[in-house]
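Researcher: I'd like a structural prediction for the single chain below. Treat it as a standalone chain; there are no partners to consider.
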Amino acid sequence: MTTLRELLEQTDRGAERLAVARLKRDVLLQLDDALADAGITQAELGKRLGKSRSAVNQVFSGDGNVRIETLAQYLHAMGKEVVLTQRPTRGGAERAKAARLRQSLAAAERGQSHVHRLTDS
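Model: Treating it as a single chain, here is the predicted structure.
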């Protein structure tokens, strides 16, 4: 049986939405971990930032889009900083390879083939 996630991963738009959801989840987990490590409450964090507890809660609950600057400020107030890494998307290499193949085929159809024999230099 195919899961909803597997179905979504089969389309570019679905894969993109899943990537956004994973990033959002990761950011929220990082915020929660930083708050726990700092040993403070959202209300205390709000005081450090000069923001209301409800504004802080809105960020921690994932409501809306959080600016990168805001994320950095929140983490800094908890003694942390952002470290980003990237990785290939699921199926991204295959989609990129297929796109390059489509471009090559289209160029060949237009008589612009860039395919060279091994003896060509």
